[in-house]
Write a structure and sequence with these properties.
This protein is α/β, with parallel strands linked by helices. Helix content is 39%, strand content 9%. The chain binds pyridoxal-5'-phosphate (PLP). Pyridoxal-5'-phosphate binds next to helix 5 and helix 6.
């Protein structure tokens, strides 16, 4: 971890000595972002050897790169190339360097013909365990499939209840339903993630597991949730699909699930995901369930009656290996941009117009949410004006809460009304553009537009 022994001196001249290497996970990036914002050089010992850290390590070898102003700072782009600031422009999901790496990987696969199975899968699993510090990874065909696989491998099935939040992507609930179990919704805390006390209040004799979601890239209160699970003898599985690179993922739970779809912090050129776990037995069972019930390594010999065809394709695994070196640098960019938003929008938080998230070491900023504290309807008008007058696109993730979806009523369940915090946060939330390629100038345009629209609304 980095230590800061000499925090004095003019900005840009301050130096700190690092006692050892930092890691490219969110806690390491949190320190780095703090140093860069304070104009401190704190990176002299570099970054750990995991593949996911490679591009950040390269940048940090030139110690001053991060401290340089535009246009010599190559870590961010500084221009505003388009007339609009789109929320997540698909044509910019990959940088030039990432595109080249993906192409190299794909070309390699074309030569071997190893499209579905091949050595890339286990190599990627190993790289993942290295980076996350979790001993076992099973690469899958999506985050959704990984959720279904791990729940089934843990024996979740008909008659069981799984406690989860109501503000997640549909995949979380669908995975529980796919196992024949019952999703039970519990309220969240102010960080949008499952509140341990609310979970405890929803436990019944049928509760089998708790399934928190690290929404927006912020880890749920895993210590608190683990304590609840231990008290009641429950399984704990993290939906970490939005939290790749978050410090602590899979450290407190039976398993964590990741998504590598192209819109995530780390995405491949298609669908992919993984289960990561500290348990060798669970990893083994996930492998069996993910491929037709076959015993790993024994072709066409079943160890279980049933399994899916849901392993990661070798093509995507090779691309993932090509793109993994960029992960920490991309997560650094996201955290730095989040910190810039927080600084710039702080006056609106002080005046009570906005609620802002917190910069914490367990956050990878998949999304940047704000709470708009305007009169009823004000959030939606603000959103419309941002787009119509300024060409700034925002979004709401996700527009309909799980228990307010139409088919929920058809399932014969009584809609849950015990989710006051979830509903309160949901009625005010707005997500601002934040992605790997967002330029500083684009972000400044978002901030300026935001102030104009808020002034107009007040
Ligand atoms: C919270 C959450 N859970 C599950 C998923 C499903 O992941 P995938 O799209 O890889 O199936 C996603 C991503 O879409 C997600 O954001």
């Amino acid at each position: 971890m980095l230590t800061h022994r000499h925090p004095t001196g003019p900005p840009g001249e301050e130096q700190t000595e690092d006692s050892d290497e930092m890691a490219g996970d969110s806690a390491g990036l949190f320190r780095l972002v703090g140093d860069v914002r304070a104009g401190r050089r704190s990176t002299r010992r570099g970054i750990g050897p995991a593949l996911a850290n490679q591009e950040l390590a390269r940048v940090l070898r030139d110690q001053d790169t991060l401290l340089r102003p535009a246009p010599r700072n190559s870590v961010f782009t500084w221009d505003s190339p388009h007339s609009e600031v789109r929320f997540l422009p698909r044509e910019r999901l990959l940088s030039d360097a990432e595109r080249a790496a993906a192409l190299r990987a794909f070309t390699g696969v074309l030569r071997t013909g190893e499209f579905t199975s091949g050595s890339g899968v286990s190599a990627f699993e190993e790289a993942l365990t290295d980076f996350l510090g979790v001993p076992h990874a099973v690469a899958t065909s999506s985050g959704t499939d990984a959720l279904i696989i791990v729940l089934r491998a843990l024996g979740v099935g008909p008659g069981d209840e799984v406690v989860m939040p109501a503000n997640s992507f549909a995949a979380t609930e669908n995975a529980v339903l796919a196992c024949g179990a019952e999703p039970v919704l519990a309220d969240v805390d102010s960080h949008y993630t499952l509140a341990p006390a609310a979970v405890e209040a929803r436990i019944t004799a049928r509760t089998k597991a708790v399934l928190p979601v690290h929404l927006h890239g912020k880890l749920a209160d895993m210590g608190g949730l683990r304590a609840v699970c231990e008290r009641h003898g429950l399984l704990l599985v993290e939906d970490a699909c939005q939290a790749m690179g978050g410090t602590g993922v899979a450290q407190h739970a039976d398993a964590a699930v990741l998504s590598f779809n192209p819109y995530k912090n780390f995405g491949v050129c298609g669908k992919a995901g993984a289960v990561v776990t500290r348990s060798p037995e669970l990893a083994h069972r996930c492998r069996v369930v993910s491929y037709h019930g076959f015993a790993p390594g024994s072709k066409n010999v079943k160890a279980e009656l049933f399994g899916f065809n849901s392993g990661m394709d070798n093509t995507q695994a090779e691309i993932a290996l090509g793109l993994l070196p960029f992960l920490s640098l991309n997560n650094f960019r996201r955290m730095f941009l989040a910190a810039r938003y927080l600084d710039a929008l702080a006056p609106l938080a002080e005046s009570g117009t906005l609620g802002l998230p917190e910069l914490t070491p367990d956050h990878v900023w998949h999304l940047f949410p704000v709470q708009v504290e305007l009169a009823a309807g004000g959030r939606d008008l603000l959103r419309e004006r941002l787009w119509a007058r300024h060409g700034v696109e925002t979004d709401i993730y996700y527009p309909v809460l799980t228990h307010q979806q139409k088919p929920y009523a058809h399932r014969g369940r009584v809609p849950v009304s015990a989710l006051p915090r979830t509903e309160h946060l949901h009625s005010r939330v707005l997500h601002l553009p934040l992605h790997n390629a967002l330029s500083i100038a684009e972000q400044d345009r978002v901030i300026e537009a935001f102030y104009e629209c808020v002034r107009h609304a007040e």
